[in-house]
Sequence to fold (252 residues):
Amino acid sequence: MKLPGEHIFVTGGAKGIGAAIVLDCAVNGAKVSFVDIDETAGKKLESELTSSGHKVSFAKADVANFEQLKSAFGALVSKLGDVTGVVNNAGVNSHADPVKMTDKEWDDFFAIDMKSIWLTAKLALPAMRKVNKGAIVNICSIHGRLTYPNFFPYGAAKSAVLGLTRNLALDEGKFNIRVNAVSPGYILTDLTKSWLKAESGREERSLSIQPSGRMGEPSEVAKVVTFLLSEKASFVSGADWAVDGGLGARSA
Ligand SMILES: NC(=O)c1ccc[n+]([C@@H]2O[C@H](COP(=O)([O-])OP(=O)(O)OC[C@H]3O[C@@H](n4cnc5c(N)ncnc54)[C@H](O)[C@@H]3O)[C@@H](O)[C@H]2O)c1
Fold:
């Protein structure tokens, strides 16, 4: 058990990497709360984990809407106590053209992939500062450092997540709060599977550049997140942990 007695709050926890994080934290002894816009998937995961004896609680919230997020966060804290760890996982892709993209599309996208990370910090930091202890893990992407064409403005948002991670790590260090990023490469979630299938030959091409010859599983990201949340990572802060099977080491 790496997280006994902790209360870990996860965004976008109903499916994909987020659901694997919820499961891994629960298996490692934490109370876990999570929010998602997908109420059906959220309630299903909550009921599965609760019936196997874990303390897990779900609330519906859109991370881009501060009032919704604040109200869900408050309700989950009332149920499970103060949050000691946060995982900012909710995110969507953005394939846009810099000329065609509208102001509103930009703002809506950044509200999810970028601004929500500050919003959860705003909600969780007061209780963490009070007890001089806490950990935040931001799910970034290989696109925080390297990217490819036609993925505007995803690379910009994920690079900003790395900047926010570093600044929060500097500012919160005096409160013994650690802030790190995890940057997955290709991980086989619904999001990735549908993207791989969207163009003929894309899956084969994407596999051919993987040093490990395969793509990752959500549980392989979750294990790194649990480590970074835990005391085992007590001197790790302001870092970006790649979980990409070596893809980021590759030069064109
Ligand atoms: N899968 C990959 O290969 C990969 C690679 C690099 C980074 N990432 C990052 O990992 C994170 C999770 O991705 P995934 O592949 O598991 O995606 P996914 O689509 O499988 O799951 C994302 C979850 O977030 C929820 N969500 C989306 N928008 C939300 C919002 N506004 N408010 C609350 N919940 C919301 C979705 O309902 C879903 O449950 C994202 O931040 C993504 O950018 C994924």
In short: The chain is about 45% helix and 15% strand. The pocket of nicotinamide-adenine-dinucleotide is lined by residues 11-12, 14-18, 35-38, 62-64, 89-92, 112, 139, 141, 184, 186-187, 189-192 (CB under 6 Å).
